[in-house]
Specification:
Elements lengths: L1 E2 L3 H6 L8 E6 L5 E6 L4 E9 L2 E8 L4 H16 L4 H12 L3 H15 L5 H17 L8 H15 L1 H7 L6
Parallel strand pairs: 1-2
Antiparallel strand pairs: 2-3, 3-4, 4-5
Helix pairs in contact: 4-5, 6-7
Length: about 170
Amino acid sequence: MRVKLTQEFVNSAKPADDLEREIFWDTGTESFGLMCTAGGHKSYVVQYRADGISRRYTIKAKKSLKLARKEAKALLGQIAKGADPVGDKHRAKREAANTLQSIAEIYLQREEKRKELRSIGERRRILEVYVFPTLGGRRIETITRSQVTALLDDIEDENGPSMRDHCSPSCGR
């Protein structure tokens, strides 16, 4: 539905009774609207196309309409220059999910649920203290054998050969 968005309209807007969510598109700003859910949640949206795919960027409704409209216009300007904020967010999320720390956390959570491995707490501690500070934020496919060897050498120099063995992927299993 197209309406002239005003702060009063934003404050009182709610979807029609038969709808779970409804978007009220602004007549003043192209591709900008207010999305309301049946549960009372409201947010501003900017709809655009990037590489032939329709995307919807969400702006929190805690901002005033004036600030949200200003942010939407700036965003539409970036999109006109070739930016894809939603696509960039998705790529960043995929890349963050592919770090050593995120993959190790998935493993640790799975092992904690199974409750078969008594040393899971010690493995978590070793990873958090010795491995994550150095390699935790790195994407898993970029970590090389020489980097792992250098890390294990540093651990041995600072904490002894026993701790190196506990941290080593081939030992401590």
